[in-house]
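Re: the 329-residue chain
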Amino acid sequence: MTTPLIRREVALTMRDLPAAESVAILTRLALSFDGKDRSYLEAFGLGSEGKEAEVYAAVSKKMGGPATDWSDAFAWIAWRLHPTGAAADFKTRALLPDLSEEQRKRMLTALAFVKSREAAGMMIDLAHTEGFPMKDLAMWWLLNRKGNDWNAYDVEGGLKALGLYDPANVKITAVEMPTPVGGGVALPSADEIGKLTGNPAKGQVAIAVCYTCHKVGDAGIEYGPDLTTFGRQQPAGVIISAIVSPSADISHGFEGSTVALKDGTTVTGMVLSSSDPLIIKCMGGLVQTIPQERIQSVAPLGRSLMYDPANLGLTAEAVADITAYLKRL
């Protein structure tokens, strides 16, 4: 019996072979995918390059069926191949409320990489679907893809027709970082706070000030890093330092920018896309689209988007309590 490592190597050797010589072998390799081994999936995808449609059609006959009944393994394979013929199924699964948020996002991403007018139209439909929880993500993909792979499909015209996006009528909300509070009593060093005995029960109350920017369990906003994961993975000293000196070590992907508009408006946040329009995620999870013609400049913020502890009204004891609570999650 071959091992996954050997099967990965076989998949990679299929890359330069025509479909007539490789589809049958790739189909057998697909049947051995456990739905979890991402390196195996990537090798399979590389081996299928240039013949994705043929491979998908063959694998679908063995593992597919109605989109509502896909196994997780087949959903991953479809995501990796993202053939034109699977677009409608991707949309169907993105709309399935019984799937997890991660599974639905995966299907939305797969749809975004299908290079066809139909796929672009389906993404517009999703962005316009009442009650669809990922409408903002669908819009993000549309505004990103309209300038490249979907450039020929008049995505902007479709968005205008449905009232989803019109550069001439975009309303932009000013969002500026508050200046650090001065004149207060400075917090002790992170090392000194680390010597305090935090109270998890008090920390559960004190951490409410973080909900505007962070997810903590099921509460809060997705803006900064998820504090549930952060609390489980990081030692107490790192958590304390992140609260006391947020600009000392900014997490990758959470760097801030200042967007100055020609009308004098300033918007700070995380730039998600710098194409036209620029897409920026601001405090509280507000996502804004800004037409490039209205932008004067874009510059690094130069500090963390997280408020200083004084702006949040946090004492040394509160920081210790929050840390104790996060370590209990």
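The chain has two domains: 4-166, 167-329.
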